[in-house]
Amino acid sequence: MNKKTIIRTFEKIALYMELLGENPFKVGAFRKAANVLELDPRSLSEMDDILKLKGIGKGTGAVITDLMEKGESDLLKELEEEVPKGLIPLLKVPGLGGKRIAKLREALGIDSIESLRAACESNKVSVIPGFGKKTEEKILHELEQLGTRKGKLPVWQVESIVKAIEEELRGIKEITRFSVAGSFRRAEEKSSDVDFIIVTDEPSTVREKLMEVLPIEETVAAGDSKLSVVLDMAELIDADFRFVTEDQFATALHHFTGSKDHNVKMRQLAKSKGMKISEYGVELEDGTVKTFESEADFFAFFDLPFIPPSMRKDGTEIDRAQEIADVVTFEDIRGDFHMHTTWSDGGYSIREMVEACRERGYSHMVITDHTQYLRVANGLTPDRVRSQIEEIRKLNEEYDDIEIFCGTEMDILPDGTLDFDDDLLQELDFVIASIHSNFNQSQEKIMKRLHAAMKNPYVSMIAHPTGRIIGQRDGYNPDVPQLIEWAKKYDKILELNGNPHRFDLAVEYLEMAQEAGVKIAVNTDAHAIDQLDHMEIGVKYAQKAWLKKETVVNTWPLEQFIREVIRK
DNA sequence: GCCGTTTTCGGCCCGACTGTTTTCAGTCG
Length: 568
Prior knowledge:
The chain is α/β, with parallel strands linked by helices.
């Protein structure tokens, strides 16, 4: 018996109970029990007090005991016998919840998608009390859509959708202020929808204009305070727009940024103090509603530091809030150490990239073009590297407010050798080693390649260590814990590639790396000036792993960077 | 079903929207 089995059992029980139309709080209790186990870092054998955990009581405890003693749960078995399996997909139909599904089953013996469709088509659903013609039509419509609905979109796709919507919002003069909220603001790897908070005195005008300018596939809801639509923007995606007044902005932004669990925890905290949080403000004990200038003020009101959106996850961040002061912020970043220029496959000259980095207030930066193996990217030969070094050194003399270091993003070749020899590498300030080829090699071969780079005394950092592209490919599947061990042993930096296509390393590995005492660099891997701005979302992603300022080498002052990285 | 520095009973985060009602239930985020 392991913890996962218990968690899955609780989730199944909750699902079946929901289909029976059970009390939502009872259903929630099983989900909560599953969540308690999920959040507990200990393995089952390390937990001698599992039945005493908060959230585990008589009912859920009996399930655990059953599983431990017999390997199966009587309760789950009963439920599985009672509830037809065909009902499960019905919960995926928008507009259908436990209550309605239970009613449908009771009144018409509905036990599957097929029987529900047949019942709708023969107009049997509309005569059930509480249902009507419109509901019947809506169910039928949703059944047709089922399966065609897109799943979650990767963050890089959501990013371009958000930018396009923001462009439209800027064009509506009745909007005084707006912000994206939701999972994109939290820098989640994938999103199922996009949310916007809009400050306006004329919500109905804004709503009408939005409905004109947006590529709306379907309008889900259109009221005075919100517009919910499905947009057709290359991909189908749900979008929510909330209309609020200026003084409601901060609490509305907080509310619609979520996460859901974070909000629940905040509201419980408020409640314990006799107050009530809603998207419109904080209702005090005397009934007056307090509003805030900013989210920071809102958190401060509850004696909490500003919790960055990307850290608002399961609610435990509120308990650990005092640790947030040590976590890296975008303002701490002093340089970007991975970017490309026209020398290889970048879109801008070295000088243009330098100017862009100066504008961003960096004190230092590294130019890291590709190497000869990567022909498609116009990778540099040793000769070209040497002339690039010359150009960079010359350029560097022109600027006294930024230090430009000579680097490279060197390929680790399929046979486990490196693209440049040591003589050349030692002429460079900062050497990135990367895998861009033969992703389908065995893990053993991949690790041999990575080890070759790790062992080399001139290599400073391994870039995008797994090669993943979010929502598109898994990468070359390295043994990351082993990689982290080597990084510690050979004193190498691991990259958090902040390009939203990658976010590589992933959160779980970043946590592991920091735990092991390995340094992380957050870089943009920019191939164009505007991509340098991915530093911000990259840092947001780093915050998810609670990376401390000291762990992230980009926060180090120039002198420390020179001492501990460049001259190492 | 779970929980208790007001509580062992009566809450459980809070509000918008829709559709089916004629004051509210269900669903959603």
